[in-house]
Amino acid sequence: MTGTVVEVVVPATSANLGPGYDALGLAVSQHDELIAIVTDDAGVRVDVEGQGAATLPSDETHLVARAAAQGFSAVGIPLPGLLIRCRNTIPQGRGLGSSAAAIVAGLLIARGLIDDGDVSLDDEAVLSIATAMEGHPDNVAAALFGGFTTAWADTTEGEVSAHAISRQVHPAVTPIVAIPPTAVSTRAARELLGDTVSREAAVFNIARVAALSHALCSDPQLLFLATEDRLHQQDRASTYPESHRIMAGLRERGHASMISGAGPAVLTLVGAQNVTDVQQSRVTDEVVTQMRHICGPDWLVLALTVDHQGAQMHRRRLSAGG
Question: What's the fold here for domain 4-167+307-317?
Answer without folding.
Answer: Ribosomal Protein S5; domain 2 (3.30.230)
